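Q: Here's a chain of 292 amino acids. Please give me its 3D structure as tokens.
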Amino acid sequence: METQLLRSFMAVVRSGSFTGAARELGYTQSTVTGHIQKLERQLGHQLLDRFPAGAVPTDFGARLVAHADEVLDAEDRLRAATRSSGSRPSGTVRVRAPESLCTYRLPAVIRAVRTREPDVQVWLTPGGLDDATAAVRQGTAELALTMEPRGPITELTSERIGTERLTLLDHGARAGTRTTWDELAGRDALLIEEGCGYSDDVAAHLIATGAKSGRRSRFGSIEAIKRCVAVGLGWTALPAISVESEVQAGELAVLDGPVLPSCELHLITHPRRHHSEALTVVCEELRRHWEA
């Protein structure tokens, strides 16, 4: 069996479409379609269900994913072992990370990687803790970053590389306002959607007060929260790095309130998968960024 057929299959699984797989692999869509059809004939099973919204693995296809990942990982290890010692790192590293890191931290890391090793590409996809660890576990990402009040409990390899400070925020007119959990509990709160560790911790503090509750809205976007807070719709708790420009401009104000614990940043990789030279380069730049 040609391993390229498996690579095309895995690319369709990752991207959810033949078009996305073709773009990832640098092929035409017809080439990817031909690869999948040939693989289905060889295995005697349909591997993908085609829908207008995209392609998803059949039951047999889903079972094939883990085996295909092992075969391709073994091929990558063999290529790495036989590569000339003078060759430069190359390849694509897929990273899952929280929105705030994708927007405010990782562009600088990607620039450093590109400067150091131009043939290494980094693809970013926003995702919370569960999405990030699932992507590494399933092989749809080589690397995940988590930003939680505590380190993740996982069978994957987890390395603490730094912290990010959290801050309580309101609209600019409330700059310097002193507050307490009881007072905050009675006001409208705008928080990141459930599953975000630091927002869930803030919500737990509010519940623990037993105070009369204001409205608690959950958002999937930090940018949306910032805009709503800026017009006075409530207060929030966000990573300090994500609000620096708005605080400096006076659009948002830091509240003098309960101390929030910093979030721990953990670098997540799969312990049994091959760590390519490209992945090593990205991990080194991530460590360097938070050491600075």
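Q: Can you summarize the key feature?
A: The first helix runs from residue 3 to 15.
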